[in-house]
Every structure is written in C-alpha cells, then in structure tokens.
Design brief:
Elements: H1 2-30, H2 53-56, E1 59-63, E2 69-73, H3 74-88, E3 93-96, H4 103-117, H5 119-125, E4 139-146, E5 149-151, H6 154-159, H7 161-171, E6 176-178, H8 185-188, E7 196-199, H9 203-211, H10 216-222
Antiparallel strand pairs: 1-2, 3-4, 4-5, 4-7, 6-7
Helix pairs in contact: 4-5
Zinc ion (ZN) binds next to β4.
Length: 224
C-alpha cells in the first residue's frame, strides 16, 4: 500500500513539473513584443515629443544632488552612474539636477518661472510644454559638487570651464552628447548649456557628434 501511495505521489509530482514547464513555455510564446523608445528621437522647439512616449519610456528613480527623487530613463541612468564613477576617479563630482519632466510639470514650471524670473528668462531657458527634451527622460542636467558645495547656478557652472571640458571629453564613451554646444543657438534654439547632456544609446554616433562639435540636429540632417 505504501508503495502504491509513493508511486502516485511521484506520478503527481512529475505531472506538476511537466505542467509548470509547459505553462512557462506558453507564457513566453504568448508574450507580445514590447515596443521600445527611439533613443535617437529629436525633441526641440520645432519637434514635439511623440504621442506614445509617456507610455513606452521606462523610468527609474534616482536621487538628485539634494537627495530628492528624480526620474531618469533606465539605460540613461545606468550609463550616467558609470560616467559619474569615472569622473569621480579624477576628482570631479557631477550630480543629477533636473531630469524628467512630464508635459504637465513643464507647464507648471513655465507658469511659475514667468512670475519668478520674468518672461525673457523663461523664453531663453524654458521649453514650451511638449517641446522639452526633458520629457524624454533621456536629457540629464547635472550640477557640480566642488569641495562639498553644490554648484547649480547657470552662470557659475559656465564659469567652471576646465571642469566641464573634462566632463564633456568623457560623455561619448557612455552614449551621451552635449546637447546645446557653444555658439550653436541658431541651430539648437538654446544658448550654451554645459550641464545638459542627452543620452542617445550609441557610443559610435555620440563620438562622431562630439569629435566634430556637431549638434544633434546637424547629425540627424546629415544622416537622413
Ligand atoms: Zn536641461
């Protein structure tokens, strides 16, 4: 009798394992292919964020320089951490500042800064809601930490030329480009922003852009 029970148990176990296996397999086959974001997407004053972007983008939470939560696109954040570590070895500390903003948040920012800093400032530094690269999650604004002090002011950061030259030299190695280079406002629509990096998920293209001092717009136009 004992033997019979044992056999039944073994049979049941085999069935269960077989069942699990086939279930897993079915699940894998049924899984629809997930659409992914286009890392080469162009968002600027003339090109709006694609409509389905907010559904597709995978965001991760990280801490900014002040310890507050910010959201960054998954791969961009992974690569940012590597860049940050690399620079730290050279004594340069870059920290996250402004990263992802939804279209609704951008509207809020536009309204608030118009009151606080004036229309002129807003039109120079703030994008129209829907037309900010920060909607992609792929744009990272950094600030500097120098001798334990956070340097996040635009003018002060621009003045730290030597530090940013070293930072910019490493961007392409991690798939980032400097999005608003100096003297290219007529193309990008923005003044020089040494702190605004854009992740494009392709180190080869990033190198081509950085080595030739191209804007993202120029690269895309050349490679249409
Ligand atoms: Zn920015």
């Amino acid at each position: 009798m004992k033997k019979v029970i044992y056999s039944v148990l073994v049979f049941a176990l085999v069935l269960t394992i077989a069942g699990c296996g086939s279930k897993k397999k079915d699940k894998k086959e049924e899984k629809p292919k997930k659409a992914t974001i286009d890392y080469m997407v162009l968002v600027n004053k003339k090109n709006k964020l694609p409509n389905n972007w907010e559904e597709l983008v995978e965001l991760e939470t990280a801490k900014d320089a002040w310890g507050d939560d910010v959201q960054v696109e998954k791969k961009a954040l992974e690569q940012f951490y590597k860049l940050q570590k690399d620079l730290l070895a050279e004594g340069i500390d870059i920290e996250l500042d402004s990263i992802y903003r939804s279209v609704a948040e951008q509207q809020d920012l536009w309204d608030r800064w118009t009151v606080e800093k004036g229309e002129e400032y807003v039109k120079t530094y703030v994008a129209v809601p829907g037309y900010s690269e920060h909607h992609t999650g792929l744009a990272i604004d950094v600030c500097l930490k120098i001798d334990g002090e956070i340097v996040a002011d635009n003018e002060e950061m621009i003045a730290n030329k030597e530090i940013f030259a070293k930072v910019h030299a490493k961007l392409a190695d991690y798939g980032f480009i400097l999005r608003y280079p100096e003297g290219k406002k007529d193309i990008t629509g923005y003044d020089y922003e040494p702190w605004h990096f854009r992740y494009i998920n392709d180190t080869k293209i990033a190198k081509e852009i950085m080595d030739n001092n191209l804007t993202f717009e120029e690269y895309l136009e050349k490679n249409k």
